[in-house]
Design a protein that fits this description.
heterodimer; A: alpha+beta; Immunoglobulin-like; 2 domains; six-stranded mixed β-sheet; four-stranded antiparallel β-sheet; about 35% strand; globular; B: about 300 residues; mainly alpha; two-stranded antiparallel ribbon; two-stranded antiparallel sheet; about 70% helix; about 5% strand
Chain lengths: ~260, ~300
Amino acid sequence: MRRALAALAFALCCATASAQQPGDMLNDLPAAVAEEQITVSSDYRGSYITVFGVNPDRRGRGDIVVVVRGPSEGAVVMRKRRVFGLWINGDPVEFAQAPSFFAVLSNRPLRQIANAQSIWQYQLDPAASAQLASSVPTGGDPSAYRRALVRLRYAQGLYQSYAGQPRPEQRGGLTMYQGGLFRAVVRLPANAPIARYNADTYLFRDGRLISSQRIPITISRVGIERRIHDLATTASWAYGIMTVLLALFAGWVAALIFRRT
Amino acid sequence: MIYLPIAEMPVSVLLVLLVSGAVGFVSGLVGVGGGFIMTPALIFLGVPAPVAVATGASQIAATSFSGIMTQTRRKAVDWRMGLLLSIGGVAGSASGVWIFERLLRLGQLDLIISLLYLVLLSGVGFLMLSESYALIRGRTTRGVSILRRPARTVAHTLPFRIAFPRSGLYISVIPPLALGFAIGTLAAIMGIGGGFILIPAMIYLLRMPTNVVVGTSLFQVLIVSSLVVVLQSAATRTVDLVLAALLMLGGVIGAQFGARIGAGLKNEQIRGLLGILLILASLKFLWDLVIPPVEPYVLGGGLW
């Protein structure tokens, strides 16, 4: 029953989200990503997503906003409370939808580019994409939970925002070149989910959306990482038995060496 | 650096080998399994607690299997008792994995693991410290209190009694089953083998002779930890094969060195030191639970 409700809620959210979002993607802004495929192998330590594009306006008017979004997933936020002197996790507050990864880049502060309503409509802010699914415990503030979710994800590096040129010590940021060319670089941390992402580019002029483009990016495991993960998810029993056999083999080898010395 | 496919994080190979080697070294030195040090050590390294618990069990399986091969040659395993303890342990670990999954969904797993470790580490730490203190002070009567076994226990009065020839016992099957169940549950939730609880319980509660206690407990630990690995793989998918392989390698090598160096050292001093170490570790768990959090909100629900 709960699952059915959750599925229904999810479907509704998707319906509203899709009514808002891809419909608004005009796909008329010339842009491309440096790598459409990012591979995760055993030496993976995170990566960078680079988006290139050209402002189609000949006189270079307007502002560029680039948003890299991971898939939306449910999320849970709990507030710690004190019980018998110990801090334990309090009642969970559920979000039906929250972006698992969200990086927003703009050539100047976002609030100068678009008004709050546009930011909300085009979901240019991670908080705008987070939808509460359950009631907040009595005395709690719903927006505090929303802010906490965003803050915690920022701390994990899963949410990022950059306004203007990258600072010297970091690679992430949006750089504007002559002739309307721009380049956006987003750091993808190792803990970012391995999934399909979208790099969305928007051109605003005088606070209005002029053109936009959506480019999919796939992050996938390759090689041994992929084999292990596939085995663990599709044949989890065999995977467990394999791990035990490995353990028994390691123990057997150890006992042999131990007997000799 | 190597990327862990299940924990979904990169770790330093050298660091994990060093930590698991150090834990193996201590366990070889003192003669304990080491699961109750390995799991918290992994949590301190930043490995998510569910992955640390489930993956630690595979390292315990490796260590206990190498131990049991040595014990079998010495004919120091009471198979009948081991089988009963294992049956209890199998049921216990199944219930433990179920509790583990429930807690994971409720977002309270980390808290329960912290609390259990707080109690366990401080308890074992104080026991070791007081034991070594007694041994260093007067090494005659009090120190060997572990050998003063009571003549009759509840195990002799309960029904369904059977004979255990190798242990020279005629006791009820209920206490071994219950004991195995309790250890199996703890093993699944905490990522420990449980030998350091099982061994005193076998001596005091079941009145088993000390020469078969270690081998028999290893048998139970092997069966339960192997099952925990398989069940956790299937139920929570938190067993990381790459991390497991690193732990086995480091732990096994460390244990060999520990056992060799331990043979030439004074046991009571080592135990005293380990006792202090465990109490310090438990204080760290207590500290994290007691101080007001800087960030009052936490993310929960999934594995992270």
